[in-house]
Amino acid sequence: MTHPSPWDMSEKKKLLVFERSFHEHSLRIRVVLSQLPLSVCVCISAILVWLYFPATLDNELFVIYLLSQTILLALCVLLPWDRLPYASFLSIPILDMVSIGFAREGSVDSITGLSVLVVLPVIWLCASGLYPRLAIFMSFLGPLGIVWVPLFVRGALTEQDITKPLLFPILMLGIGISVSVLTLSVVRQQRALKEKDAALKKALDVSTTQERLLNTVMEALPLGVVAVDSDGQDILMNRRQRQTHALAAPPGNPNPAEAELLIFDRDRTSPLAADRRPVRRAVLGERFTDQLIWIGTAKDQRAFTASARPMTDDGGKFAGSVVVFSDVTDLVNALAAKDDFVANVSHEFRTPLTSILGYVELILDDPHGLDAAAKAQLNIVRRNAERLLTLVSDLLSVRSGHIVIQPHAVDVAELVRGSVTSAEPRAAKAGIRLSMDVPEALEAHVDSSRMAQVLDNLVSNAIKYSPDGGDVEVAAWEDSNFVFCRVSDTGMGMTDDEQAEAFTKFFRAGGVRNSTIPGVGLGLPISKAIVEAHGGTITLDSQPGRGTTFTVKVPA
Q1: What's the CA gap between 326 and 240, in Å, rounded?
Q2: Measuring CA to CA, which residue among 90, 175, 98 is closest to residue 142?
Q3: pTM of the prediction?
Q4: N or C of the chain: less Cβ packing under 10 Å?
Q5: Which residues pair with 472 in a beta bridge?
Q6: Which pLDDT tens digit goes with each residue over 399-456?
Q7: What is the DSSP string of 195-242?
Q8: Rounded Cα gap, residues 402 and 529, in angstroms
């Protein structure tokens, strides 16, 4: 292995000095570099005098010029300027002017125009940016002293002698002013750049801190998060989502396309269509919440809910989307287990209830076996057994998600009147004013018993959840081939969160759970299933403390 020679090292240092920016050097090197152009000119002038005007070397003033320039260069190199007062180096260009004055007088008989060298210290003074007014003053006073002092020393002065050389200091003044203006402009630009640089560094530090915080939060989230741009390219994905992506990858394909991922519909076996896959929907700009999908196969298959929110740029244009995946496998399995338990218990209830009803009917059919009081008691048993059997049937229907209806021509107005008439005793007992607004007749093709069940349930709820009295109004009308039924109350009302869960099986509002109001949370889910089986919809509008309004819409 060869080592670089000292010559090579010195050459590299020289090149490094001239490759670096002036302000990047130490103060000593900057002082030397500022003096160096004048020193080079002094050397050139000395060589020219030695070659062509050797007699000038005998002139004491010219010798003083050469010696003073040598001493000044040595001072530039040797003095620790960084430990002296910062502006002390400005004494060098001022002394340069004095030295050039000796050169001008000592070279009168040889090289003319050496006084022009004063432009170099003038530029140094004005380009330093320190004491700009003093520098401009010295750029005129120094050259003026060079041309005037010899005149005063000789003593022979006329007005012509004094004014004749004034152009030279005026020219130096103009150069000094120009250099000062340019220097001040550059200094202002440098100051502005430093301020911008400081602001950019601060913004970068803040951005870096926020990015680090975001990455930490993303990695700590129990949810899978992926952000995509408008072209569908991933721009952000946390650790949990990388695990989910690996679960969805087919065997032997570690980097599959979106359409190749193992994503299935609710039935866990049907591959989800490409345009219904969460990331694809997000790239198309869709906004959705809690789309249930299954990812993976066999025993590794997991259930996820996906939600997406689009992003926009400053112009309001679609710029991408953020998709969040939440593993809900345990929740889905728990809900399935609960539904299975309800179905099994309901099946177990149905057999003894059917037997009870059968034997009660046999006893009641005997005209001589019971007195009136016993028959009344058995009728109560039968009515409650029938109610239990209906509840069991509804539980099974909700579990299977299938409600059987038998539509036929029905007067819905009559159904409403019947429901209101049946509820009047309860309303009166609760101190509720019950009213209705229905036409004489309102024909529709629906299942009368099922629609009556819906109306009874809604009216019963309106009365039940108005414990402090109030008003309950039932209305029905027809519009655009649809029949509408509305039940409004001025009771307890529901919050937004409670409204979102109102049609969920077994759900009861917090205020109701803490009260003595009876219920199991199945009335609204069953009513919704009945209405949707007719091809209709049921909606609600509620405000806490102001009441609730349910609106049923079914095809006429």
Answers
A1: 10
A2: 98
A3: 0.48
A4: N
A5: 434, 489
A6: 655 677 888 888 988 988 988 888 888 888 888 898 989 998 889 888 888 888 889 8
A7: HHHHHHHHHHHHHHHHHHHHHHHHHH-SSEEEEEETTS-EEEE-HHHH
A8: 8
